[in-house]
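Bug: token stream looks shifted between consecutive jobs. Job 1:
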Amino acid sequence: MLGLNTRESLRHVVAQVRREQPCVDLLLCTGDLSQDGSVASYEAFRQLTGEIAAPTRWLAGNHDEARLMAEVAPELVQSVTDVGRWRVVMLNSAVPGATHGLLAQDQLSILDDALATAGERYCLVCCHHQPVDVGCAWIAPIGLRNADQLLQRLRSHPQVKALLWGHIHQPWDERRDGLRLLATPSTCIQFAAGSEAFKVSEEQPGYRWLRLHADGRLETGVQRATDFTVQLDFDSPGY
């Protein structure tokens, strides 16, 4: 993509995680795991991320083929995972053939059931598409179309501490009505923050780490693959 070898950038991000995070309880991959949606690409992604010794969960993004993801790794596309005092809920917001996101009724039902049965667990909810305006005009139309339905549900359940997504290829961290809203950088090309039209940044690829404490506190930050050199070729095929 724009001259950047995305498999190699992912390899460097995985190596960065292994250096910095010696004990990982759960690895969350929040969509656009592949560009061509092929079986070979998902097998390669699984092999590369498998170097991180942790249970893993996958979400489909707008570039993915959800059916093939489930065929390649059915155990990785589970919607609900409990880790200690926390419940992690993965919601598929991908719309076949479209760039924007939408949580279909079956996904909203998964969320309703997961929150209703969480008991005393705190909850982290994940999807692919952004549910809020992140200040990039060109990204706004390809966000989550029924974000209000999602946010209303989350606000009515105080045990939900955070909502995490991918899609925007840049970090995001804010609080609204007691809910932490988080996005992660991409493992390949980064989009420039605050851009009106499509624009990429020459920041390094990276990942977001999270510490989910037993008392409901959440600590998080973003780390970049410091040993990866970003060299973009704007005359090559783009996004």
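Job 2, same session, no restart:
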Amino acid sequence: MKTIEIDDELYHYIASRTQSIGESASDILRRLLRLPASPQPFVLVQENMIDELKTLAKMPKKKQTLSNQEKVVKRVEYVLASSHFVEESKGVNRFLQLLSALYRASPEAFSQATENVQGSERIYFAKDEATILANGSSAKAKQIPDSPFWVITNNNTERKGIILCALMNAMELPEALVSRVKNCFI
């Protein structure tokens, strides 16, 4: 048995891949490298596995450690704590800040969620202003910053909170975070 030194990031990666209590680092690496369970002389790692390891080594740390949901949560919490959000007096601007954060953190989940969030007579989200304006006699829309989406904006503050919470629920974000956002629009 040989001893090798590895950096903390690699150690945490190996440890996070543990499948059973007591599994050794050698067992984990053998499984990840698709090597036989017991040592074999002169076993060569396949070319594609070397490429996979190189790709893994190049990935930024956050991508390895944060799930998509965790990234969204962190982005929303950052906005909620920012002075720009806290000091903003207009509900529509806070509404747009949070929508922008949700989109930037997870464009695909945001896009899917917007398909499920709409009113009984109005469409709340669209890829163009005309679609929203066509679905309401007095509808007003604004583009969500840093996104291709438009959102209806002439709802009252409470309705904006309801729309945000419905979107966050459709994105399967934690209920505690959804409640915090709701409280910003009461």
